[in-house]
Model the fold of this input.
Amino acid sequence: YAAAVRQVLPTAAASASVQGGDGNTTWNAGLGFDTNSFQPSLQAGVTPGGSTLSTSSALTGTSFAVALSVTIPLDTGLGPALDSARLSLSAAQQKLDRTRELAGAAIEAARRTLRTAKLNVSLSAAQRDLAASRAALAAQRLALGLVAQPAVDQAELAASQAQLAWLSAQDAVLLDRMALAQALGLDPMEVF
Done:
């Protein structure tokens, strides 16, 4: 929008130049500035003796010139151009708002997933401890002759599976922490 406004505002340009010569070789240098681009400009030139294109002789002495010009555009398309720029600005603002909302939703979803994963670790730890105590109880009952070896093997297998589930739940917490860091725009290498 600011660029569209700047194109229809009056602009000013100022320049200063100096030109000199010894009757044979001519040289010039200049400096300028305009409000359209807000950039300075420099120029310099040398015309060696005998290379003038006109029949006049080369400059003898030095001359100095200053120029100031003002340009006022008379554009009939100003209104539509500004309306178009205003609509583009509004569309960009809406896109920014949508992006912020989506990012907020992604962050909240990552936080919920991480909370669930932490609860799953606690549950897996309780199940692991229960399965380990059942395996120990089955080993005691085997020593007393109350159960057969397959029952003990099955209890130890259940304890190993519970241990594996607990380790898997811990891995899920790490992955969810990384996903949350990415949703927050953080570098995971800085978080861990």
Q: What stands out?
A: The chain has a mean pLDDT of 86.
